[in-house]
């Protein structure tokens, strides 16, 4: 493949290289001979060096990938806050894409959601001859409905369904994170199945490998149970707090250290709840771990890894990145019984009836008290990543999606 192929990948709600899915996509395309540029927010959500709009004047170059960052006024609470964030991001992304187009042109532009609001930009570049790919990360309508209940949520859900449909329709190919999302593209989006490709989330086998346990992380406790991921309203942190309360207050177990890694809108609420229940002495919340080596050390030290996402229309159909990372570390998982979680983890997890926080706590204790079962489940998960779920197995699907998009767009190889 010649170096003449140029791709731009756009994301609004995360940044590379922390967003491992997008970073893996960018580096896979680079390795296949593409010239790749990523447009994303500044990692600190602060002010970046650039013009008055907060768009960087020149790209950052990282491992052969060009990155344009823009200032993002991240929403905190309320619909108006999200509208301000999305409007600002839309203008910044439109500006930087035009800057790239005028300077270098590009053959393909890939939009990652949420949100599903960039279809006007996609249509504009499609009309100029670029191939458009939609990388379907989240169910934006369901996400809007969960965040804003009541009449406001219903109205936003309807608007999100319209923007989702328009995003599907303007794309040459849709890449879905799993078969549930792929079915939505075919059903709700009315996209022919042959123009959809499932590209699952999965850790890189060559990088996400177990390391030696660091017993200092346990702080003298016999066991360590760990959560690692986003801390949004839909991620089940309050359910996890309730499970920890059961373990400590009702089951009387004081030999377990809980570590909750991550950040997000629910972090402060989680910390307050832990303090109110007197659980803060057995729970450590060090924040987002950006050092991948340190993250692997935490996960390798843990005896059990936790995935407490509650049952919602969004969560039931979603594949959580953390599950694959947990399995790559060769550790057993405790999770609520969600359809896509079961498809991903299979025998590597214990599944608890959704909403049963006491049952979640009991499942943690059952695993911790059965080290042979823990070892067996961990090995099953690790082998599943090695044989099927690792990113190296998904790269082929990514490159196939790009070939399909070029064919659908009438482009020649």
Please describe the structure with a list of short key phrases separated by commas or semicolons.
six-stranded parallel β-sheet, Rossmann fold, single chain, 413 residues, 14 strands, eight-stranded mixed β-sheet, 2 domains, alpha/beta, 15 helices
Describe the model:
The chain folds into 2 domains: 6-202 and 391-408, Glycogen Phosphorylase B (Rossmann fold, 3-Layer(aba) Sandwich); 215-389, Rossmann fold. The chain is globular and about 65 Å long. With 413 residues, the protein is α/β, with parallel strands linked by helices. Helix 7 (237-250) packs across helix 13. It has an 8-stranded mixed beta sheet with strand order 3-4-2-1-5-6-7-8, sandwiched between helices. Residues 45-52 have low confidence and may be disordered. The chain has helices at residues 20-31, 79-104, 119-127, 140-147, 150-170, 179-187, 237-250, 267-276, 292-301, 313-317, 321-328, 339-345, 357-368, 371-389, 391-408, and strands spanning 6-10, 35-41, 60-62, 65-70, 108-112, 131-136, 173-176, 196-198, 223-228, 256-261, 283-287, 304-307, 333-336, 349-352. The chain contains 15 helices and 14 strands. Helix 12 links the parallel strand 13 (333-336) and strand 14.
């Amino acid at each position: 493949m010649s170096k003449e192929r140029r791709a731009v990948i756009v994301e609004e709600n995360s940044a590379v290289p922390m967003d491992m899915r997008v970073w893996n996509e960018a580096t896979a395309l680079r390795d296949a001979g593409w010239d790749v540029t990523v447009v994303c927010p500044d990692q600190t959500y602060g002010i970046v060096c650039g013009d008055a709009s907060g768009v960087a004047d020149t790209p950052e170059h990282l491992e052969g990938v060009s990155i344009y960052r823009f200032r993002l006024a991240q929403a905190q609470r309320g619909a108006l806050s999200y509208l301000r964030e999305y409007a600002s991001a839309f203008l910044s992304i439109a500006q930087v894409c035009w800057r790239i187009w005028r300077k270098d042109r590009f053959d393909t532009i890939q939009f990652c959601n949420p949100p599903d609001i960039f279809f006007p930009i996609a249509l504009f570049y499609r009309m100029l001859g670029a191939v458009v790919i939609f990388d379907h990360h989240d169910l934006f309508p369901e996400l809007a409905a969960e965040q804003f209940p009541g009449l406001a949520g219903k109205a936003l859900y309807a608007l999100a369904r319209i923007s989702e449909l328009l995003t599907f329709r303007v794309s040459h190919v849709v890449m879905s994170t799993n078969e549930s999302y792929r079915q939505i593209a075919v059903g709700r989006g009315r996209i022919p199945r042959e123009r959809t490709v499932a590209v699952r989330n999965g850790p890189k086998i060559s990088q996400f490998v177990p390391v030696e346990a660091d017993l200092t992380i346990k702080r003298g406790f016999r066991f360590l149970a760990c959560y690692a991921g986003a801390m949004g309203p839909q991620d089940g942190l309050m359910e996890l707090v309730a499970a920890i309360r059961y373990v400590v207050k009702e089951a009387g177990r004081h030999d377990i250290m809980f570590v909750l890694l991550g950040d997000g809108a629910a972090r402060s609420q989680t910390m307050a709840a832990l303090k109110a229940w007197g659980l803060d002495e057995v729970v450590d919340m060090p924040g987002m771990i950006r050092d991948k080596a340190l993250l692997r050390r935490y996960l390798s030290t843990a005896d059990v890894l936790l995935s407490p996402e509650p049952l919602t229309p969004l969560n039931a159909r979603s594949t959580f990145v953390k599950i694959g990372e947990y399995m790559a570390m060769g550790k057993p998982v405790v999770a609520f019984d969600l359809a896509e979680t079961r498809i991903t983890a299979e025998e590597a997890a214990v599944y608890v009836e959704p909403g049963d926080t006491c049952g979640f706590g009991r499942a943690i204790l059952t695993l911790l008290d059965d080290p042979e079962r823990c070892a067996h489940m961990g090995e099953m998960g690790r082998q599943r990543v090695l044989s099927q779920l690792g990113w190296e197995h998904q790269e082929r699907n990514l490159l196939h999606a790009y070939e399909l998009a070029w064919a659908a767009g009438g482009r020649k190889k």
